Each structure stands twice: as C-alpha cells, then as structure tokens.
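Handout, page 2. Input:
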Amino acid sequence: MAISIRKAKRSATKLRILLTSPSGGGKTFGALLLAKGLGGRTVVIDTEEGSSDLYDELHEFDVIDLKPPFTPERYVEAISAAEAAGYEVIVIDSVTHCWSGKGGCLELVDDIGKAQFRGNTWSAFSVITPRWRAFVDAILRSSAHIVCTGRSKTETAQVEDHGKKKVAKLGMKLEARDGLEYEFTTVLDLVHDGHYATVSKDRTGIFSGDPKPITVDTGKRLAEWLAGAEPAPATKPQPAQPPKAAEVAEPEDAPPTVAEILGHIRAAKTVKALGRMGDRIEELTSEGNLTDLEVAELMGAINARHEEIEPTTQETVTNG
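Output:
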C-alpha cells in the first residue's frame, strides 16, 4: 500500500473525552451536557441499568441498553452499531463495566486462568490484553465523538511512617485497566458537590484555571476548538445595566433571582423537573445572568435534591 502524506488538520479528528468520579458524582449528567454542546445526533451505550433515561429532558438522545456479560466484544459491537446508524456523538456509560463488571475482563481472566493456565491468572492476561486493546482501538478509530464515563475509587498503599507501616490514601484511581486515561484528548475528574471538573489531562488547552462545573457551554467550546477556532472564554456575567423603560413596565421579563431558582429546586418532585431547571440555568448562564459561584450553588442544590428524590422513587417502586 502506498504511503500518503497530508496536511495536519485538527478538524479531521474526533474528540475522545473521559469523565471520572465515584458513584453519584454526576458522570452521566456531565456527559450528556457535553454531548448537547458538541451537537449532532447522540446515542448512549448504557451499562448502568438505564440511568441515562433519567435525563431524557436534558438532551435528546437514543439509548443502546448493554447488558451482561460486559465483554470487550459486546462494547465493540455496540460502537459499530452506533456508527452504522450515523450517530455523531457516542456516550459510553461506563467503561468500568468492561473491566470489572459482570463478564468483564477481570472475570474473564479468572475463567481463562482456570481453564487454560492451571489457575495462573497472570498468564491469562496474554489472552485478555488483545481483546481489551480491540475495545480501546474501537474508541480511538470511531468516526464519532466519544464521551466515556468511568468510576473512580480511593487508591491506597502501605507506607512506612517513623518505622511503622500504615495505609495512606494516594488519591482517586479509575476503575479500568492502567493506562486507559492516556488514550483520551481530555480527562476530567468530577467532584460530587456541584459537579466541578478538575482536569488531569487536556490536549485542548481550554481547561486551565480553577475547577468549573461542566455545562453545555463546555461542549460548545470543545467543538469550537476542534473546528480550529480559538474557543470563546468561559461565559462571564455582564455588568449590570440601568433598566430600560420597557423593562420597568414589564417586570415579568426579568430573569429569576438565585433565591427564586433555589425555591423551585427545593420544591421539585421529579428528576425530569430538575433536568428542566438545569436547562434553564444553562440558558441564564449563557446570557450572562449568573456568576460561576451562583451556578455552582444552583447545581449543588440540584444534585442534593436529586439525591433526596431518588431514594423516595426507589422506595415507592419497591413498596408498590
């Protein structure tokens, strides 16, 4: 095959984004906000028992319900089906199941070790590694933008302190095979309170500075960067202007105050209602009516109310 040479072109590539956090940290929510900002038809490869369906009013998307066994081949099959259907954004929620879920790589290592290597799981990795690599390659070579989520947990190690051994916390570690993070354009670690994102890897250069909540605007800025344009700075509130006569005459057109929005959040009865409020917060932010601190406070309130609603819903289903 002849070797071809072409001009480097950023827009010829597709984004590969990874969001990590412990359970309940807002990975699915954040992934859908990014997908909405990126634009295009979106499909979620859902291994979380339909958790993405809770956000059906946040963004219009379709779902591939991926059930166990979570083998690498089933993930590759789902990605291929999404590409064949013409989706432009694929959300994989989550990659952790391919590694440590039921029928995932760690279970396969045990089974193969017992069946082929007399219980030697180390040798079994020689069989699993190419299968895991095929899954990673399917992500890297996809014709769509890929937004992955992955669970993280506290990593510990035994260390010596003044001659005594103790267990020390080293930080958060993604529940997947070591090195997966290196394959992505951007890796963002989410904090549960307010869905703040801290960057652990970024090839775009747009995530510098202090941690910020993931919003639809984040996805838009990523799309602008990929198109070759200088991404617009994160939305900043505009200085207050004297009200015009028409605005004074029609106070109902004034944006709601933070206190009013908080009241609506606390009164919300369903997750869908919270999703609508999240959309409204995005609109107000893009219009310059909310500061970063106010957005953080409101998103934290939505998250807290979400946690209150979900147990009630589950209890109703169980008792019903």
